Batch of 2 targets.
Target 1
Amino acid sequence: MQESGSSECSVVRAVSEAPVRDLRRVPIHPDHWYPLALSREVKRGCAHGVRFAGEPVVLVRAASGTVFALEDRCAHRQIPLHDGVVDGETIRCCYHGWTYDCSGQCVNIPYLGRERLPNGVRAYPCRELDGLVFVFPGNPALAESTPLPSLGSVASDAYKTRRYAREVACHYSFMHENLMDMNHQFLHRRVMGQMTAHTIGRRHGDDWVEVDYKLARETGRRPLGEAVVLGAATEPTETNEDVMTIRTSYPYQTLQIRNPDATLMLDLWAVYVPLDREQRRTRAYGLVSIRRPRTRVLLDIVWPLLIWFTERIFKEDRWAVEREQEAHDAQGGDWNHEVFPVINELRELLRRCGGSSARRVIPLDTPAASAD
Amino acid sequence: MQESGSSECSVVRAVSEAPVRDLRRVPIHPDHWYPLALSREVKRGCAHGVRFAGEPVVLVRAASGTVFALEDRCAHRQIPLHDGVVDGETIRCCYHGWTYDCSGQCVNIPYLGRERLPNGVRAYPCRELDGLVFVFPGNPALAESTPLPSLGSVASDAYKTRRYAREVACHYSFMHENLMDMNHQFLHRRVMGQMTAHTIGRRHGDDWVEVDYKLARETGRRPLGEAVVLGAATEPTETNEDVMTIRTSYPYQTLQIRNPDATLMLDLWAVYVPLDREQRRTRAYGLVSIRRPRTRVLLDIVWPLLIWFTERIFKEDRWAVEREQEAHDAQGGDWNHEVFPVINELRELLRRCGGSSARRVIPLDTPAASAD
Amino acid sequence: MQESGSSECSVVRAVSEAPVRDLRRVPIHPDHWYPLALSREVKRGCAHGVRFAGEPVVLVRAASGTVFALEDRCAHRQIPLHDGVVDGETIRCCYHGWTYDCSGQCVNIPYLGRERLPNGVRAYPCRELDGLVFVFPGNPALAESTPLPSLGSVASDAYKTRRYAREVACHYSFMHENLMDMNHQFLHRRVMGQMTAHTIGRRHGDDWVEVDYKLARETGRRPLGEAVVLGAATEPTETNEDVMTIRTSYPYQTLQIRNPDATLMLDLWAVYVPLDREQRRTRAYGLVSIRRPRTRVLLDIVWPLLIWFTERIFKEDRWAVEREQEAHDAQGGDWNHEVFPVINELRELLRRCGGSSARRVIPLDTPAASAD
C-alpha cells in the first residue's frame, strides 16, 4: 500500500470529481465478509430472514448449532424459507414441504421421487465470529482467500465490549463520512458541549484512509459521559490531550482513542451493510470496546450511562445522515460541497473500492422436472 | 370440449413455458360475469363503489330494489358517483347535482336546459343471483349470450351455505393454483394435522382443468374441524375414503368432496376478481355449501366452529399467496418451478383463457355542450 | 385589459381545448408574490421550513424581528437550514456550523479560514404584510416592480378578519374552479340548505375573470350561519337580493358579497400555493373579512359559530377537489367536461397565465474550496 499526504499538503479539488459517478449510487463491493446478523438473533433450530443489498438471505441455525446461509426463497414457488421449519440440519419450506440442506441442495419433495429432485438454491459462505454472523455475498471462489476482519479489542480481557446493530435510512457512504469528519461536533453540542477538532495528521493507501484528531474543548467543563468514556478524572491540557484516530479500511471503519501514554482507551469497529437494492437503507453494526480502569467494576457501574450517552450521539448522527439522504433524493444528484481534504480522500476511496453496478441475482439453472 | 390426459400420462415440460408471457401479468378475461359485491353490501337507496381491474364501478340499488351498474364517475368533473344521492331510479352526483339513469344517460343538470344535456357515462350489464351482484365488464354485446355461472348446491335445501368475500394482495392466478394443488397440506399442518394428497385422476379441456384426490392421514387422529366438514363419525379406511375433485372452469373454480356413496358432502364455488389495474389485489368470492346430516340442526350447532376452521385455513392460504406475489414483484418475473403436471396444465389454461392486455377505459364521446 | 362577454353571449367550446396542455399539469407562474407562511408561524429567533412547488425554503425571523428567506439547505452537505440555530441576524447549520446571512452568503465555517469561504445559498425576496409572509420565488429582478397584492378589507376597522391556512391534496386550479362555480351549492345542501345560483353577469380581461351571482333559496328558511355572515335579519326578496362577485385576478382570488345598498358585507381574499414539485398538494391561504354590524360586539359573539360554519363549508369543498384530483390521477388526463362558460374562461386564464414548465433549482456556482 502506498502512503501519502499529511495535514500540510495537497488540496483535493472538487473539479476532479466532475466526471465521476455519483457516490450515493456506488454499490458496496460484494467481495468482502459482511455481518448480516448478531449471533443472538439466530436462535438454535430457527431460521432468520435478512437482506444484503436487496438479496433475501436466510440464516439457519441447525440442530447442531452451526449456522448456514441460503437464498431466502423456495426454488418451487419462491416464498421465503425463513418461514419454514428447521428439521435437523435441513430447512423445509412451510408451503409444500420442499427440503434443503446447508449447501442449498433440494434433498426432499414429499410428493416426488428422490431420483427426480430439481436443483435447489444458492448457498453463501457463512462464518460466525465474536457474536456476529458473517456472510460472503460476492464471488464464492474468493471467500476462502478473503480474511474475516479483525474486530479490535473484543477478545481482550482488558476491555468491555458492547455490540449493536441499528438500521439507518441512508446510503452507507454517509455513515463513513459522518464518523470520519470530526468537525461535526457542533451537532452534538447539547451532549458533548462545545468542542473543536484539530486535524493533526492524515494518511492514505489504496484501500484505506486515516486521520488523527485532537479535540479541544471551547468551554472548561467536561461532560460526564466523555469523562467516563475516556476514563480520565483530570482535565486534559495542551500537552496531555488524547488522540483520536479514525480509519476506513474498506469496507470497515474504526475509531480509536489513545491517551498520552498511547494506551488504547476506546476501540470502535463498525461496518455499514446495505439492506435494499438501491442501497438507501443500511444496517450499521458496531463493537465498542472500552478499556477497564484499574478498579474494573467501575466500568460496569457506569455502563448504563455510557450506553445512554452513545445512543444519544448515534441518534443525532442518524438524524443528520438521513437528512443528507433525503436531500440527495430530492436534488437528484450529489450536491455535496466538501472542503475538508480527508473527506474528499474518503469519497475517492469509497468510489474506487465500490462495486461496479447493482447486482441482480438470477435463479440457478433449473432443468425441468415433473411428477405425479 | 376435448378431453385428454389422466394421472398416468404426459408430462408438461417447463421448457414449453419459455417463450410464453409471464402468467402473473396476464389480465383476467373481461368477457365473463364477475361478482363485484355481495347483495347485502348494496343497500336499497344507496350507491356502492367497487372496482374491476382498476375500473371504478358504482352499484346503485334504486328505490325499486333493482341494482344497476355505471362507471363510477360523474361525466362533468369526474368525482365518484358512489358518493352521490340515489333519487328514485336515478343517481345524482353530490357536487353539482348532475343526474343519471340506469342506462348511464345524463337526465338532468339543474342549471342547464334539458335540450342541451351532454352524454352520460357507461353502463355495465348487471344481474343479481343467489346473493351476489354480477357485472359483465367486457364487450356488452356478449353479455346476453354469456350464461351466468351455476353456483352449485346453493339453491338446494339439503345444504347450508356460507357466502364470503375476502381481499387478497395477489394476482388471481395464485389463488387458482393454491386451491388446486393439494400437496400444500403441509401449510395447514397445525389445523389439519399431517395429511398427504394422492392424485387419482386428472382431465382437461379447452377451458377447464380437473383433478381428483384422495387425502391420506399420516397420523391416526382426525381433527374435529374436518370431521365436521365431512359429516362422518367414523375413520376413513383405504376402501371408504372420500374423493375430492377440484376444477377450474374459466374463470370459476369449484371444490367438491364426495363420500364413498358418491354423495356430495361439500361443494365450494369460488371466483377471484381483480381489483386494481395491475391485478395485484383480488377479491375472492366464495360460496361453501355443506350437506346437512340427517339430524339437520346438528350442522347449525357446529356452524360457528366450521366458520372458525375455514377462516383459519383461508388465513394460511392468504399468507402463502401474498408471499408468492411479493417474491414475484421482487424477482421481476415468474421464477416458479412447478413439478406437478396438474398445476402446469392449470397455468397453461389461465394463460390461454386470459385477456389479451390491460384494459384502458376511455370516456364516452362527449360532444361539446354549454350553458349559462 | 380587454373586457368582453356577458351572460347572454358566446359559447366557449370544448373543441377549442383539444390541442392545449392538461390544465392540471400547468405549474403556477413563479413571478408573483406568494405567502409561504402566516406571520405567527415564524417566531422570533426561529427558522421555519416551508416549500414552494417542491423548492425547500427556510423563513428565518432574526433577532431583530425581520424575516428573510433562503434556500432551505446548507451548501455543504445539503441538510435543511430550518433545523439550524438562529444567531443574531444569521442562521447556522446544525451539522458542521456553517453560517449564512440574510443574503444567503456563507459568512463563517468554524474550521476554515474566512478568506476561503465558498459561495452560499440563494436568497428570495421576502416581505411581510397583514399577517402573511410573502416570498417572490420567480426571477428576483422582477420582485421590486411586482406589487404585493391588495388584501381587501383587512386593514379597515369596519371589518373583522379571520386568517387561515389549510393544506389540500390537489392542483391549485381545482381550488379556483371550485370557488368560482357557485352551481356547486348542491354539495353544501346540508349546511346551506337548497340554493340555486343565477349568473347575472360576467367579464374578463387578460389576467382576470369575474362573475356575478344572485343566490335564490329553494326553500324559505335561511340557515343561521348564512344570516350571520350576511348580517341581515330579514328574508331577501327578488328585489333586495345580495350580489356575490367572484374574481380570479391571477394568481389571487376574491369573493365579495354586497347587499342591495352596495355595501360590502363579506370580503374574501385567497391564494393557493403549490407545495410539491408536481403541484398536487396546495396550501390555501385566506383572509375573510366580515363587516361589523352597528352593534359591533354582536359579530364577536357569533364569531365562533361563523368559524364552525366556514370550516364545515371548507371541509366539503376540500373533499370534492381532492376527489377531482384522484380522478385525474387515475384517468391520466383531464376528462373534465365543463358546460359553464365562466369556468371555461377561468380554465383558459389559468393556462394562459401559468408557468411554462416545472422549475428545477440548481445550486449556485460553487468554485472549489479546501481547507485543513
Target 2
Amino acid sequence: MNRYTAVQSLLILFAIALLISPPVIFAESIEKLDPNMAVADPDGEWIWYDALLLGIEGKVWGETEKPYDRLPAKAEGVVTDSVWKLSKHSAGMAVHFVSDAEKISAKWEVTNDNLAMPHMPATGVSGLDLYVRLDKGWHWIGNGRPSQKETQAVLASGIPAGSHEYLLYLPLYNGTASLAIGVPKEASLAKAPARPEGKQKPLVFYGTSITHGGCASRPGMAYPAILGRRFDRPVVNLGFSGNGKMEAAMGELLQEIDAAAYILDCIPNMTPELIAERVVPLVKALRAARPGIPILLVENIQYQSGAFLEASRIAYEEKNEALQESYGTLLGSEYISDLYYLPGDTLLGSDGEATVDGVHPTDLGFQRMADAFEPVLKSFLSE
Amino acid sequence: MNRYTAVQSLLILFAIALLISPPVIFAESIEKLDPNMAVADPDGEWIWYDALLLGIEGKVWGETEKPYDRLPAKAEGVVTDSVWKLSKHSAGMAVHFVSDAEKISAKWEVTNDNLAMPHMPATGVSGLDLYVRLDKGWHWIGNGRPSQKETQAVLASGIPAGSHEYLLYLPLYNGTASLAIGVPKEASLAKAPARPEGKQKPLVFYGTSITHGGCASRPGMAYPAILGRRFDRPVVNLGFSGNGKMEAAMGELLQEIDAAAYILDCIPNMTPELIAERVVPLVKALRAARPGIPILLVENIQYQSGAFLEASRIAYEEKNEALQESYGTLLGSEYISDLYYLPGDTLLGSDGEATVDGVHPTDLGFQRMADAFEPVLKSFLSE
C-alpha cells in the first residue's frame, strides 16, 4: 500500500485504540498494590487489601493511637476528654484509590455497638460511601449499609471496563477499627495519583456536630465532604459533636496543619461569652502561625423553628452578634489579613425544612450549606 | 370629650384590640375538646387528649381493624398479605388541630420494636413531626424523637400567644398503636376548621417504598406530605414498601376514595411485564368509577448509580419504556380523559446525590420530587 493508505490505516488503528482504551488514563507511575499483600477469601471470589496500604485522605497526623483517629496521640489530656473521645470517630476520612475491578466490596469494623442515632441512620453514623470520578466530577455509586459491628458489603458491581478513580468515605459518627477493600483476584488496586499541583492542601473544617456530619444520610453528604468533591481537594474534618469550643489547645493543633484554608464553624457550641473570649485569640494565633492562609469565620445556622419560636431565634442571633463583634475587632484594632466571613442567614435556605430536628441538617440542609459555602471558598482559593 | 376625640379613642382602642388579638382568628364555630375528655398528669403539668378525638387526616376508611390502619378491615385477605401488613403503618396520617397552648407534647406508642431501619432514622420510621401554619404557609417547628416503643416528648414550647393551626404527622414505617396530645391544663385543643371549599378532597398517592416515605428523616418530608403542605390539601398515602404492584384489588380500593387526584407511582415495584399487564386495566377501571378526576402516571426514578453502572440504568429505562407504551394505549385505542404523565428524568435532579442508597430519596431527593410534581399537579388541580 502507498504512504497515504498507510498513514490512514495508522490513524484508524489509533482511533480504535482510543475507543477501546480505558475511559480514564493514569500515568504509568501509579504503584499498584502487590497481590501478595492481599488476603484471599477461601472461595476465591474476593481478595482483600487493608485500606491502610492505600493511605487515608483527611488524616493529618501519622502518630495516632489508633489508625483511624483524627487527633494525634499527643493530644490526649491536652484537648478536653470529650474532644479526645470524639476524635476517635473517622469523620472526613476517605480512601482515594484506582482500580480496574469489575466489582468492589468492603469489609469494615466499627468501634461502637450503637450503629445509629435516633435522628441519623446507621448508613451515615457507621456506613461507607463510594464515589467514582466521571468526566463531570465525582459521582455517587454505592454505599455500605452496616448491619452489625463488622459488616461485609458489595459496594458496586457491573463496573465498566477500564481503570477508575474512587473515593471511599469512612463512618462519620463511629470509629473505624479496620477496613479492607475487596476486589476480584485478577483486578488491580492502587493508591490514586496525587491531586494536581495547587489542589493538594486540604480544606480544614473545625466545628460542631454539624461539621462532624450530623445528620447526613451517608458520609459523603456531610457538608465538608460535598465541598471536598466540588473543589476536588482533600478535606480534614475536625467537627466534634457538642464540643467545637475553640480551646487554645485546639487552636495549636490547627496551626500544625498545612491547610488550603481554615473554616471555623464552632458557633453553635459556644455561648456569646465564649465567643467574645476565644475567637480573637484563636484567629490571631492561627494567622501568626500560618500567614496568608485564608481563615473563614462561619456564623451560626438559623435554627429551623426560629420563624415561630422566639427562643430558638434569639439563641442564634445573640451568638451571631457576638461573632460579628469579634470579626469587627479582627478587621480593626487587631487587624488580621486574609480573613473571611460567612453570614448564617443563607446557610440553610428559608423554608425551615433543612434539618431533622431544627438544628442538624439532613442531606437537604448539607447541600444548601455547600451551596452557600461554595462561592465564598471560590473567592479565596487559588485554582 | 367631643365627638372627634371619642371617635379617635375608639379607633385607638380598636387598633390595640387588633394588636393583642391572636395572630390567627378562627371562626367561633370551632368546637373545642371538653377538658373532661382529657387525662391529667399526676403533677398537673400536662393534660392529655387522645388524638382520635381530633380526627385523623389522611385516613380514608372508618371501618379499620386498628384505629391507625390505612386499609379497611374488609381488605384483609383481599389485598396481598404483604400489602395488608404494610397497611398497618401510619404513613401519611396527620392530626390537624388548633390550640392556644404555650407548649405542646405528645405521647405515642408504635407497634413494632424496630424503631429504625439501617438507612432511615427512627425519627422518620417511628417519629412524629409538627408543623404550624404561618402567613407564608406551613412551617416546621418540632418533632418527636422516639427512644423506645412508647415515647413522651415535648414537641414545642415558648409558643407565641394566641391560637395556632397545627399539623402533626404520624410515623411513616411503623404502626401507631396510640397517640395522645398534651397541653397545659388551661389550654384549649380543637379540631382544625375544614379546609376551604375546593381544597377538601385529598391527593391520593399509590405507590412503593418511596411513596411510603423511605427514606425521609421525619414524616413531614415524605414527598406526598410536602405536596400536601404546598397545595394545602389532605393527602392519602398508599405507599407499600416493595408492594406497589397495581393488583386489581388495590384498584378497587382506590375507586372507593373521593379524591382530588390519583397519583400512581408504582413502577419501581413492577416488572416491564407487570406494567404491560396491569396499568391499562387499572387506569380504565379507575376512570370508569371516577369520571373527570385527574390520574397521574409517574415514571420510575432514575437510580442514582445509573450514570456509571449500566445495570442500574437499564433497570429503570426498561420499565419506563413499558409505562410509555401503556400511556400510549391509554391516549389512543383505550382513550382515557384527564390522564397525565410525569417523566422520571426530572424527579431526582442530575447530580446523583438525591438518595441514601441509589433508590430511596433522602429529604434532598423528596424535596426535588416535590419540585418536579408541583407544576404538574398545579396544571390540573382546580384552585
